[in-house]
Amino acid sequence: MPEKGAPLVYIALEQPTGAHLLTPDHDELAVPVTLRYLSDDPLAVHFVFPAWISLDEEEVTWTFARSLLEEGLGSPAGLGTVRLCPDGPSHTVVELHAPQGIAAVRFQTAALNRFLLRSYTVTEPGGEPLEPALDRGLASLFGVV
Hints:
Elements: E1 12-22, E2 28-38, E3 44-49, E4 60-65, H1 66-72, E5 82-87, E6 91-98, E7 101-108, H2 109-122, H3 130-141
Antiparallel strand pairs: 1-2, 1-7, 2-3, 3-4, 5-6, 6-7
């Protein structure tokens, strides 16, 4: 716990990586993705896609549980808008579900695993403080800012 009155220090971890957007025609479009972990949001990971790939030409960030990323590297995981599934021994497919459709993006499993392990150097698994995350979740649920 920081000393009273001491400024809080937050850490942002970013890892640029390459991925492939899988198209319905079974083509693949190479796309750069930035993997991001923020110590002030310790339960989540963020996948940042460039503006040129989105329908509205704005950078798109998908945020989901870090524990989902961990689970999805070894077996199919996820029930909601983000689902992960191993694709052979060296790739992982991340499905992103939105009202406009589903995007399937294939990553090298080693890159995702490296990112996950680096995030553990910032906040150990299970070492995340739950109270701030619960407070933010409850505030958003009840419309409080």
